[in-house]
Amino acid sequence: MVFKARDAQTYKVKFAIPTRNDGKPRTFSTGARSKEVAVDVERTVKRWQGRRQWAPLEAVFDGLASLAQVYDAEAVGALEALLTELRDVDLDPLVTEWAKRANAKYVKQVRTFIPEGARFPSSRFRRKAISEFLAGLACADPTKNRYRAALSVFAKWLVEREVLESNPVRDVRQYKERDPRMVWMTWKDAERVAKASYPPFENVFALMAASGMELGAVLALTRADVDLDSRTIHARGSKTTWRNRVVRYEDWAHGFAHRATDGKIGSTALFAGVRPEAALLAFKDAQKAVGLSEHRLHDLRHTYAVNALRKGYKPAVVAHQLGHKDATMVTRVYGRFVPDASDYETENKAGSATNPATVAKKPREVKRAK
Questions:
Q1: Residue 217: helix, strand or coil by DSSP?
Q2: pLDDT confidence of residue 360
Q3: Dist CA 292 CA 197 (whole Å)
Q4: pLDDT of residue 346
Q5: Which residue(s) pair with 227 in the sheet?
Q6: Are 162 and 207 members of one domain?
Q7: 197 and 295, same domain (yes or no)
Q8: Mean pLDDT of 95-110
Q9: Cβ contacts of residue 124 below 8 Å, gap of 6+?
Q10: How far is CA 290 from CA 192, 195, 200, 208, 301, in A?
Q11: What is the value of pTM for the model shown?
């Protein structure tokens, strides 16, 4: 018998099932303001009970769906689909668990697809839904690839937890990446720019161009990270595990390294209080002072890579200096600057003020037998 409590807006019904609550009845809202509709909801409940069709009523008892939801699904022939979805693992709490050790940026991107606090059944984590989600993002194609990467990392974790059988993101196509920006200067010009700046930025710019370190790693340096005798630096990049590495800086930057470390000991920060925004402004001013333009601060990493390859360093060495996992990107992006693809150990020296597409290898001397 349906009933309505005083001041209540919807009718309620009480029923029991043997598989829940020890067979004791509970009261649920029918979701209906009309008594006629509420009575039909009750008839549907009795029909399920008579058929021993417990699944929809178990979903109501377990709080996975309201009585109105399962009734509406039955009315439109979608009950089985709803029950299948409700039986799926909810990914929302799993994202929360994964987030404890995941990259914060990845978590934010995954949460764009799987909102926090809302049930998200694993059956919806499929190739089509992911593809449509990426296509609907209001951002550039390379950024969509970052979202795709985040979802893929989460999917791999779900496979490890045996929530998914396979990674559905694998079969979602990647978007086109922009061609990498390729603006660089010679080490001589990089040194001129550094000298044209003021403390402490001249040391920051010199160390970036002479070692390939990213700005964040340079600004995080302490005195203990720099070994002046071996001319090496412990770069503590945080983007990936391989960004935490020991790099060598070029001889021309040794004076800058000395000045950056002068009077500092142990864990004392070399560039305490220096903000990235201030470094960007200082770099613009310095390059204008020496008659250069169109360079960004990040181009100092390109400067290191191009000059090092032209000097004869192996791509694997350059990749390590830049903090890349392997030489794949170095070869793809900077391959045209390698003097000789079959022999990286050349004697070519960087020095041209232009950006040649290729650099000819110095002929070897051949000693003739007398």
A1: helix
A2: 39
A3: 13
A4: 43
A5: 232
A6: no
A7: yes
A8: 95
A9: 85, 88
A10: 7, 10, 18, 18, 19
A11: 0.53
